[in-house]
């Protein structure tokens, strides 16, 4: 009761998300189009936008309905956004949707060290979950405002369920008597591991370690059928296979136990040794997709909200499903786990015999076997198509940028746009992520680039016509998205409101300019981490890139992905150009004599 009261009190202190003014959004939309469109096309679009926003017009009517929706809902856009961006998306979760975080290598190189660290990792996660469940997790703040904490309980015992037209998320966690097990996967074999004693206390590290040894003894050989690879399929295909799979009672029980589990631990087999230069790229790929059907991809269940990966060589990381989880709560969880891993295990194991971990079995008929063969082929095609380049830029980090009285995020964004322009001789629609946790039930919005000032700066840069004082490109990037005044979620809401009312899609959204403005050739993301971690995910469009960066004091970690099927994009080339662009920007401020 007390816990529920505390959550209610905190929830009421977080503001509802506002619906931005219509004319403000339309004007900012036109401004965002200026660097992307030639003048004649921009004028054509301006006429369409003005008609949409005129007094008494369609835009005003839709806006009025959005305001009513905001008054009578927990959050006027978040449910729509999750449904539209994630649950209705039919692309595979592997690469296209689930972000991966590769964390600093641990100091072990064999299976013994792997299991010792995995035991501590599990104990740290259970410790964090106890804080969430008891209401002891401290409220987070940004700019003096309390942040919404609603996503934290959803991280555990939740799973995405495939469907033929759209997916849905099931959350099995309950304050009392929720699931008490995790899933452990090794050599493509799934195990149910109970992580609480009969009195409700979590297992100690030594107890967990003993159970992981038991799992290892039951999974010497690799299973012939990597069932987890089914979850990497196109969502429509997996939805059909899921229905066939669950017709069998044994399969249904096994799948349900995976879905209900608190989280999944993937104990990966060793991968082929490579040069130090390529190691970080290989490890990011292993966390992201498992390396393929002959590597560790069968050790994944991509629908699961939280999957922790621990390799025998000291590599480890996290893969999360995006419909339920966002970057900032994941960063909080990881900070807690990393702090926990620094502490010694002081808990003595109770002298109580523990039940043997339960191996989960699957009955595979000819239909399921065919589904598996297709899934294996398609995943290997997807993995071979993905180009990943991770690198550590060591010339400077965020400290130097701050000394120049600049925002590190803005500095890096300008460098990314400059690098893209140098490779492709154009700028493109690019999105960075703004968290909307200042609002109740808030998820994210986009921070758009380039701006007109950035375009002018980039064009002038290689003509030696640029100076430190050029425009406001060095100012802090637009913060209005953080304040709930971004344009992209608002425009999406107007479009979905029209569809919900049974109207034709408004002309503003059928205009080629809107298609161009939402064809995100650059998907960027800053990792909010205090460690040398590397985040990685696939591009949003076939001819695009995804660029993640983690600025530390004296260096910056980058990951860049592109698809090999597109002849115009090349992750290696963009990475080299980005390094040179960062050097050149430093020279602008600190010219060498």
TrEMBL record:
GO biological process assignments: carnitine metabolic process, CoA-linked
Active site: 322 (proton acceptor)
A Pfam family the protein falls into: Carn_acyltransf
Annotated GO MF terms: carnitine O-acetyltransferase activity
Record's keyword terms, sorted: Acyltransferase, Transferase
Domain of life: Eukaryota
Choline/carnitine acyltransferase domain: residues covered: 18-579
Record carries keyword Acyltransferase: yes
GO cellular component term, pick one: peroxisome
SUPFAM superfamilies, A to Z: CoA-dependent acyltransferases
Gene3D superfamilies: Chloramphenicol acetyltransferase-like domain (3.30.559.10), Choline/Carnitine o-acyltransferase, domain 2 (3.30.559.70)
Family statement: Belongs to the carnitine/choline acetyltransferase family.
Name listed for the protein in its UniProt record: Carnitine O-acetyltransferase-like
